[in-house]
Amino acid sequence: MFVFLVVYNLSAYHCEHLKQKVQAQKSMTKILVVDDDKGATDLIEVILHSSGYESVTVNDSSKAMDVAAQVKPDLILLDLMMPEPTGFQLCRMLRQNPNFRVTPIVIITALDNTDSRVVAIGAGANGFLRKPFHVSDLTEKIKDLLP
């Protein structure tokens, strides 16, 4: 009942201010997207921005570690099938770096077999989505893994 009274007594200005504050905190969430397919990263970037997240994209997996170190993402979306380092290798490299040991990593790939899932999870991934994916599947996975 107390919460209801507090919310009830907020002015329209305060409600809008709180809404903007929550949106600003959500937009500060940085997501690194690593995929050698520019079309895929562009699409994912649109989805992330429309969901209120900040995104940084990398289309060259050999630059991903450097970009991750600069950006310090809150979550990483990672394709598997890329030139060296592959997504599997990059996932292992990220997990070996103390700065990314606990950063959630979601694999997004066209591969859909049990072996790929097992290897990805074994490499340190927290989640796995198959391309093509539904937008809500991606946003729900992100929400599940972020605090």
Question: What does this molecule look like?
Answer:
With 147 residues, the chain is an alpha/beta fold. The chain has a single domain (28-145), classed as Response regulator (Rossmann fold, 3-Layer(aba) Sandwich). 50% of the residues lie in helices and 16% in strands. The protein has 7 helices and 5 strands. It has helices at residues 2-8, 12-27, 38-50, 64-71, 87-96, 114-122, 135-145, and strands at residues 30-34, 54-58, 75-78, 105-109, 127-130. Strands 2-1-3-4-5 form a 5-stranded parallel β-sheet, sandwiched between helices. Strand 4, helix 6 (114-122) and strand 5 form a beta-alpha-beta unit. The longest helix has 16 residues, at 12-27. It is globular and about 30 Å long. The two termini are 27 Å apart. The relative contact order is 0.13.
CATH level-1 class: Alpha Beta
The whole-number mean of residue pLDDT values reads 85
CA radius of gyration is 18 Å
Instruction: Please list the strands of the largest sheet in the order they lie side by side.
Output: 2-1-3-4-5
